Amino acid sequence: MSRTNFDQLLQAGCHFGHLKRKWNPAMAPYIYTERNGIHIIDLHKTVAKIDEAADALKQIAKSGKKILFVGTKKQTKDVIAEKAASVNMPYVIERWPGGMLTNFPTIRKAVKKMANIDRLMNDGTFNNLSKRELLQVTRQRAKLEKNLGSIVDLTRLPSALFVVDVLKEQIAVREANRLGIPVFGIVDTNSEPKNIDFVIPANDDAKDSVEAILNACCTAIAEGIEERKVEKADEKAADAQDEAEAEEKETRRPSRRARKDEAAEAPAEEAAAPAAEAEAPAAE
After folding, report:
1. For residue 169, which of 202, 149, 196, 208 has the smallest C-alpha distance?
2. Global pTM value
3. Above 50 in pLDDT, residue 283?
């Protein structure tokens, strides 16, 4: 069963591509027709590609890995932040910090710096600073929060990137390609699909279009996370049951010392029996 349908995508305007003169010929397989100088995307292919991407995203989430959402376009960044946060995934909606993937340890240092500023503010270390110095620290903290606040929980490289507008975010795509991180991308008719592992051909400018696609993908991610929780709970219950059964067997089974004592007592009893029988006639 499909995660989204043709009518939903049509209503959201996912089929509107760019002007014909701005097209990338590599997108030809995903273009249905041209109308008034604008390319129209084949939504049947978009539906199939969304389902393919959603299934892959579900498996990544089910394995407990992180997917980094990237989209710095003004009209879509709020939707991206909302949808990524709803499934507890990191996202970048401000300027892409160059080297975020290829120089990840440096980015982590900047995130830790933000945590250190918070700690020093809370323990009173900054109380002796002048107003000017305090203002500088506060501004630095705000800048770090704006650019990196959404990736605080990203302690290791993400297992996948979900990119809205692969042309605008080509630096992020190149970094992911270099590190072998799979890229899921909403690809418009003016973009290059070659370096995208999971191409979703659709309008990447309209908020409704991006929201419709993210709804389907984030629903799949949420399912993966939920299945992981259920599996973990089942494993825990199975482990507890195994422990209980092992304890029960242990209590039923006599100890090694007890078995030795029983084995020693058995020959003694056998030897005592004939002696008792020999003594019986003598007493008569």
Report:
1. 196
2. 0.79
3. no
